Amino acid sequence: MKPTVLFSLLASLVSAAHLTITLPAVPALPNPSTLPSSTTATLISHGTPLTAHISRTNTFVFSSVNPGSYLLTLHSRDHFFEPLRIDVSANDSVTAWQTFRGNEWGNRGEVRGVGDGREKAVEVEVRCLGGKEFYAVRAGFSMFSILKNPMILMALFSLAVIVGMPYLMENMDPETRAEFEEMQKKSPISAATNTNSLQNFDLAGWMAGKPSAGSGEQTPQEEPARQESSGGKKGGGRRKG
């Protein structure tokens, strides 16, 4: 190996920063010790990503991070974690920023950690955003969901009218009550609900276009038959004469 290559490799190893990712207790994750052992943290940049597994102290340790800009992502089976931007300068100073997916890389949020990674490991906090839901929660029984049904509302309104109408009629003065009864008699609804008209109503004839019995109208099919019968009767009388 050439001396220049060996020197650059040793220089990169010596100047590498130390980074420790910690998980604070938040309402979404009150006890980080419940995380499974498959939880990992990844530093993504140009080249091969760096990966660290969760330790017994609920931390992720990166012992040697070269200068550059990285995206820190935590992968967990049951929880979501916020992504962070990690900047490591040439003098091994580390700065962690809050970043936002879908926005420009330069759009940075609040600072989550600052320190010199050469002397000691810089601690950076990564907060849990929430738990993963793999199954839809079945909605329970609720009276409000029943009352939202239009058919139930119409039935309740009709019941209120049926129950409350007698009390309303009793409290009316005689003149208003007489006017109301007269209006009911003249309304088409009361005429349609008449018992005699409903019993004598021919639904099949009405659908076929046949007029009612009291209208006196005749259909085009009945008129030729009537003329034939009347003509036959007259002709028969003449032959007898």
What does this structure look like?
The protein starts with a helix and ends with a helix. The strands form three sheets. It has a six-stranded antiparallel beta sheet, with no helix packed on it. The chain has a three-stranded mixed beta sheet with strand order 4-1-10, with no helix packed on it. The protein is rod-shaped, with a radius of gyration of 45 Å. With 241 residues, the chain is α+β, with helices and mostly antiparallel strands. The chain has two domains: 17-131, Immunoglobulin-like (Sandwich); 143-200, no CATH class. Strand 2 and strand 3 form a beta hairpin. It has helices at 3-14, 143-147, 150-170, 174-186, 188-192, 195-200, 203-208, 222-240; strands at residues 17-22, 40-44, 50-53, 59-65, 68-75, 79-81, 84-88, 93-98, 111-116, 122-125, 128-131. The protein is 36% helix and 24% strand. Keywords: Membrane, Signal, Transmembrane, Transmembrane helix. It is found in: Membrane.
By DSSP (H or I, 4+ residues per run), the number of helices equals 8
Q: Which sheet architecture does the biggest sheet show?
A: 6 strands, antiparallel
How would you name the CATH homologous superfamily of the largest domain? Immunoglobulins
The level 1 CATH classification of the largest domain is Mainly Beta
Low-confidence regions = 1-13
How many independent structural domains? Answer: 2
Percent in helix = 25-40%
Distance between the termini: 146 Å
Average residue pLDDT: 76
Name of the CATH architecture of the largest domain: Sandwich
Identify the strand order in the major beta sheet.
3-2-5-7-8-9
Instruction: Find the structural class using helix and strand composition.
Output: alpha+beta
Order of SSEs, N→C?
Answer: HEEEEEEEEEEEHHHHHHH
**CA-based gyration radius:** 45 Å
Predict the CATH topology of the largest domain: Immunoglobulin-like
Let me know the number of strands. Answer: 11
Could you tell me the strand content as a percent range? 15-25%
